[in-house]
Design brief:
Blueprint lengths: L16 H11 L13 H14 L13 H11 L9 H9 L6 H20 L1
Helix pairs in contact: 1-4, 2-3, 2-5
């Protein structure tokens, strides 16, 4: 795993590393154990929270987070709905005590979750 680096800037959407360690096992369920992790999962999680809170476009993700394509890849994996109708992202957000995005970010999370449920219902 990549050594954790300290970002120059902290964002209001960030969570503490201690809180992240409580939800890490949930997020790692999506990971295939074929390759070592080369990105700091904490930074990916904070980037996802930033996106959900601000509603910014993927490509507008601040450059001190991991690359937007990396963050998007994890977001897509974590957003897949399981047999119980819930995604790892939803479980992690619930366990972390996240109260939801601000107005601008709400559409992003809701859109992804609704789309996943709709696709599942069509099957």
């Amino acid at each position: 795993m990549q050594t954790p680096r300290m970002r120059e800037k902290n964002y209001p959407s960030d969570v503490s590393r201690e809180r992240f360690e409580q939800i890490r096992p949930i997020l790692e369920q999506a990971r295939k154990r074929t390759k070592p992790v080369t990105v700091d999962m904490y930074e990916v999680w904070c980037a996802v929270l930033y996106l959900l809170r601000t509603g910014c476009p993927w490509r507008a993700l601040p450059s001190d987070f991991p690359k937007w394509r990396t963050v998007h890849s994890y977001f897509a994996k974590w957003s897949e709905v399981d047999d119980e109708g819930m995604s790892l992202l939803e479980r992690a957000l619930k366990k972390s005590g996240w109260r939801g995005p601000r107005e601008t970010g709400a559409q992003g999370l809701q859109h992804v979750l609704d789309r996943g449920r709709a696709e599942r219902e069509e099957q």
